[in-house]
Amino acid sequence: MEATILLVEDDPSIREITKLGLQDAGFTVDTAADGDDALVRFRHDKPDLVVLDIMLPKRDGLEVCRAIRATSAVPVVMLTARGDAIDVVVGLESGADDYVTKPFEMPVLVARVRAALRRAQLMDPAETITLGGLRIDVLGHRVTMDDHEINLTPTEFRLLLELARRPGQVFTRELLLDRVWGYSYLGDSRLVDVAIQRLRAKIDPALIETVRGVGYRAGR
User: Fold this and answer.
1) pLDDT for residue 82
2) What's 102's domain CATH number?
3) Same domain assignment for residues 109 and 161
4) Distance, CA of 183 to CA of 113 (rounded, Å)
5) 54 is in which domain, residue-wise?
6) How far apart are CA 147 and CA 38, in angstroms?
7) Where does residue 144 rank: exposed (0-12), middle (13-18), buried (19+ CB within 10 A)?
């Protein structure tokens, strides 16, 4: 899979080891050591994916992620120093697609990166779907209700699309991890729950039903 990755990490040793690991996996890797440089390189190099540490000098990773999301749907994988739920929630709310907890194994990061890149390529551009009062335009990557556009992150868009394609079908968290995030055995069900919560806050919450003890489904 040929792709260019922007790796943003302030620790020189971690940055170098991670760069080499990603290059060994076949990726072209550009690097940045602080938040300001990350945005300059992002705008200039236009990478296919960003691996972004949260703790950065000058401008932290959360602020960088929000700035990226203001103009781009490029996949973002966050690097967090710990796996606390608050870190996961804040990272996802900033627009990240996924996260990896430090210290991490390179095969895990590579798998997450490949999954994120695959997700970005799997949309059917000819498809348009309606759910309730929502219109989902796959080609335009837009969701509208009464001609008003609803601003969704790339992950929220894919999650809504997956549910809306099969209204009434119950999706377990594990199935959604596989369909939306592109993996199961590496996944964390909190990704699903946080994304569902954020999606409901942006659309009619009645359109996504919780099936207790099982998972979620789109209302018919």
Assistant:
1) 64
2) 3.40.50.2300
3) no
4) 11
5) 4-121
6) 35
7) middle
